[in-house]
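for the recovery benchmark. tokens below, seq after
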């Protein structure tokens, strides 16, 4: 058994905005250790967002993350012979990481030519409350709402 919880790793802030949330987001974008490519994708998409919306790109991105972040999720809990989906509140750190993962995954599934355009358009859509990532959040909330009868199974 463990003798305690492992320590949280400290993530260095990104070079342009000096923001640790941006650095975490870039780490989720990164594939095969290509961090410079991930940074250029993120920064270029933020610039594209700023051009298209005439607002500050980073603020639009933060608004999009807030719109995507779920407040409830369901966890499977086995009671007797049956498995129930029990709705639980999401921890603040997990909220942000789920939102980031959804934003990137649904940006990758879009049809635009480059990843910069895909990410920029998904960010814009999410900041308006549209797009697949926002739909994913509403679907998760709907499942949690329909299973709230099993909330007393929380451990």
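predicted aa per position
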């Amino acid at each position: 058994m463990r003798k305690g919880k492992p320590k949280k790793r400290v993530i260095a802030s990104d070079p342009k905005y000096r923001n640790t949330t941006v650095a975490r987001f870039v780490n989720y974008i990164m594939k095969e250790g290509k961090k410079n490519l991930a940074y250029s994708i993120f920064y270029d998409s933020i610039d594209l967002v700023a051009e298209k919306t005439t607002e500050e790109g980073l603020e639009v991105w933060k608004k999009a993350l807030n719109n995507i972040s779920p407040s409830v999720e369901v966890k499977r809990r086995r009671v007797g012979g049956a498995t129930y989906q029990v709705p639980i509140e999401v921890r603040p750190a997990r909220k942000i990481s789920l939102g980031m993962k959804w934003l990137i995954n649904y940006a990758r599934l879009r049809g635009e030519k480059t990843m910069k355009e895909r990410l920029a358009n998904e960010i814009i859509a999410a900041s308006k409350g549209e797009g697949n990532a926002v739909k994913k959040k509403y679907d998760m909330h709907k499942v949690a709402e329909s299973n709230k009868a099993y909330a007393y199974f929380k451990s």
